[in-house]
Amino acid sequence: MRDLTAAEDNLLNGSICPFCYEQQFLEGPHGLGSVNIMCAGCDAKFCYHQGLFVAQLIDEPDVHKAARVLCQKAARYEAGLE
Ligand SMILES: [Zn+2]
User: What's the CA-to-centroid distance between 69 and ligand 1, angstroms?
Assistant: First the structure.
């Protein structure tokens, strides 16, 4: 487990996965002011804190899934769909 970098944390605060830019997350267990979320695109797991604290990375992304999501997004972008 590690703290996200400032750049990664900024993306996550905007509901964007810092690894694959997916915007859908699955919500897991809630704790005291924090919630575990998993990226629907690359399975990276985060502990997201409300308030001042930087989110933490619990589980590394699946790089193959992240690459697939990024490729799909690039294809949609090139086709003018996004
Ligand atoms: Zn992701």
Answer: 8
